[in-house]
Design goal:
Layout lengths: L1 E12 L2 E12 L3 E5 L6 H8 L7 E6 L2 E2 L4 H5 L2 E4 L11 H11 L6 H11 L14 H13 L5 E5 L7 H16 L3 E5 L3 H4 L4 E6 L2 E6 L1 H7 L2 E8 L2 H11 L3 E5 L2 E7 L4 H10 L4 E7 L3 H10 L1
Parallel strand pairs: 3-8, 3-9, 6-7, 7-8
Antiparallel strand pairs: 1-2, 1-4, 4-5, 9-10, 11-13, 11-14, 12-13
Length: 300
Amino acid sequence: MSIIEINGITKSYGDIKAVNGISFVVNKWEMFGLVGPDGAGKTTTIRILCGLLNSDTGTSKLFDEDITKKRKFIQNNIGYLSQKFSLYGDLSVDENIEFFADIHDVKDYRERRNELLDFTRLKPFRDRLADKLSGGMKQKLALACSLIHKPKVLFLDEPTTGVDPISRRDFWKILSSLLKEGITIFLTTPYLDEAERCNRVALMNKGKIMMLDTPQVLKESIGKRIYEVVCTDARNAFNVINSKTQFDVQLFGDRMDILIDADVDVDKIALLLKENKIDIIDTRNILPSLENVLMYLIKE
């Protein structure tokens, strides 16, 4: 059952087409990821869906209602966490949540506020000014503010950018709990490892959707695999593969990831390395990551 439907929406800024005729459906109670490089059109898309921008053409619906015609109703039933911390630094944690409760006309908010402070583990910091919080705690506060009115859909625009790894992990635990409560989550992220946690992912570039499916199907769809090689003198090995073959190759410390067709004879790669006095310590064949898929599609 769909909760978001967009059909053929476009949005231009002068000669630049930020969103170029995209269409997709988001199902109720799923986590949907929109990923792509900077300038792909992700933030413009999310702002259109939140009723903050009007598209030039096409239609967009939430809860089976046209966003442009039922803007107030829709905004009262969604939560939105923007890229930049947009709360009030001179207000405390408690006061920021109270302010957003007033905006959404939530009268008896105190019990809900306590629940959210427990949920985000911000209760010990409820009297601290927002400006005095760490980056991860600021994002948790922004999330609490976006949830005070119990939205049905939560929009998150790159919610963990600039957040430390431990806070990122905590944030994702919170999102998993929200899914169990029946909230639909629509997020953009530059981190492809985060996108793999989504039920479905749309890969976007230059305003267009290149591909949309589950992470597993996306990784299988390009007909490639990763030949992972652990070897001596990995940097020299990288240079050899990069200069003497047509393969896409990435270097990770003492490991190389080589993107190859499924029918490639990897013994030839091993022979090439041996000829250049590079010893292979270990190898394995694995599915490409979403990052591999995205880079492959952009190059194609």
